[in-house]
Amino acid sequence: MSFVVEKVGSLSNITILTDTQKLTLQFQKIIKKLPIWEPAYINGVPARYNVVEPFIIELEYEAKEE
Questions:
Q1: 18-to-1, 25, 64 alpha-carbon distances in Å
Q2: Distance between CA atoms of residues 49 and 20, nearest Å
Q3: Taking 80 as the threshold, does the pLDDT of residue 3 lie above it?
Q4: In what order do the strands lie in the sheet with 49-52?
Q5: Which end of the chain is less enclosed by CB atoms within 10 A, N or C?
Q6: What are the residue ranges spanned by the domains of the chain?
Q7: Which pLDDT score, from 0 to 100, does residue 66 have?
């Protein structure tokens, strides 16, 4: 996953790097609910920065006994 932290701490350009449309839409909904992030600072001035973060999804599967 990749996104940009804006100068005010909001997130934009949310992209899933291994893209499936349904997965991308779900992750975008989750990421948009996160609290405001701390922006980067360059010479004391807030700046945008790009974040690339791996997200691991663990699925549990239980086989039914017949």
A1: 8, 13, 31
A2: 25
A3: yes
A4: 11-15, 2-5, 49-52
A5: C
A6: 9-42
A7: 64
